[in-house]
Design goal:
about 55% strand, 14-stranded antiparallel β-sheet, mainly beta, globular
């Protein structure tokens, strides 16, 4: 099966671009988020391609006056991976690794035109490879990049310009992770499922700070990285090091209330404090969504709008565990900025005294 991708020197295997090895869970994904300097006006967009499920899906979500508004879309891929559209949502690569355009054509009152311009070269994170017993749970690569946004978003007839100083983060990831319908085959001897994830991309005036950790239930990290990139920096300006994040949870939830990140990165900040000002539910982009989970088949094309009030969300409902808290951040130098504190905790995690599968913080 030849496709548009075969016209370009992109091949990684002897097969056409339409095929990505043999794992049915292979995926290729875009993610974007943006926010004003004070943490308000949050928006996010995600677009996923699942070559061996022959499905593409996309999501756009924004917060207005305490409510989260989302568009979910899914279509049959027809094995063409370079058509970056799904229903009303479209991504245009204006200049690779530097500038992209996000377009949401009007659907039930939501529309947007947004430009992303990079603040520096993207960071390649360490390869995420994790197994549960003999079964590969994750095996993927991700690049992350901070940038500036411009454009506008309209919700129910109210159009708001994306103001000067709006920052955010975008990433691209590809490889293997759980997608589509769940594998019902049990894994003999597997303990209670657990997953711990924290990700804190930070925008400071002087540059971009990146930290993440995937950890076992006892707190042992199986993937982590801290890195600093000065404003306008190129690949040779990325400096890597180590970080340790101490987080406090909101009582009765698994959402972050505050955080202190201690860092050892030559030339970078030594300490970052996080003060959340807004909470975004990642289910608005399909993450852990009971209906619009990534890679699910909905037919030739299906599009839907979803709205919910953030203060009415049940915090320990499984599809509400995954959040991004938009934070005011302060560095040890006194420099202030804005960042996202993404967190997903499933199952027990002893460093935060979470001993049950879905227990909340005391």
């Amino acid at each position: 099966m030849l496709t548009k991708g075969d016209e370009y020197p992109l091949h990684q295997t002897p097969e056409p671009i339409a095929y990505s090895g043999t794992d049915r869970n292979f995926y290729d994904r875009y993610f974007f988020n943006g926010y004003a300097p004070d943490g308000s006006g949050f928006f996010a967009l995600a677009f996923g391609v699942y070559p061996h499920l022959d499905v593409a899906d996309a999501h756009f979500s924004c917060i207005r006056d305490g409510k989260q508004h989302s568009i979910h879309a899914s279509r049959e891929l027809a094995m063409e991976r370079l058509d970056l559209h799904c229903g009303p949502i479209r991504i245009e690569v204006v200049e690779p690794l530097k500038k992209l355009r996000l377009i949401v054509e009007d659907f039930e009152g939501i529309s947007a035109e947004i430009d992303f311009t990079a603040r520096g070269f993207p960071l390649e994170e360490p390869r995420f490879t994790h197994r549960i017993g003999p079964r590969t749970f994750m095996d993927y690569t991700r690049m992350t990049q901070n940038g500036r946004y411009s454009g506008w978003i309209s919700v129910d007839g109210e159009r708001r310009e994306i103001g000067e100083g709006t920052w955010g983060t975008r990433d691209r990831s590809w490889g293997v992770r759980p997608i589509g319908a769940r594998d019902m085959q049990p894994m003999p001897g597997t303990p209670m499922p657990s997953f711990f994830w924290q990700w804190t991309p930070v925008n400071l005036p002087s540059g971009s700070l990146f930290f993440h950790i995937n950890a076992e239930k006892d707190g042992h990290a199986w993937n982590t990285r801290a890195a600093w990139l000065p404003e306008g920096g190129d690949v040779g300006d990325i400096v890597e090091g180590h970080g340790l994040l101490e987080a406090k949870l909101v009582t009765g939830t698994r959402w972050p209330e505050s955080g202190i990140l201690e860092l050892d990165i030559p030339g970078g900040p030594k300490r970052i404090e996080f003060a959340p000002v807004e909470r975004f539910q990642m289910r608005g982009l399909g993450y852990t969504h009971p209906e619009w989970g990534h890679g699910m088949y909905h037919g030739a094309l299906k599009v839907a709008r979803e709205d919910f009030a953030l203060d009415e969300v049940e915090p320990l409902q499984p599809d509400n565990l995954h959040v991004q808290s938009i934070c005011e951040v302060t560095s040890d130098t006194g420099e202030t900025g804005t960042g996202a504190f993404e967190q997903l905790i499933i199952g027990p995690y002893s460093p935060l005294a979470l001993n049950e599968f879905l227990s909340g913080a005391d």
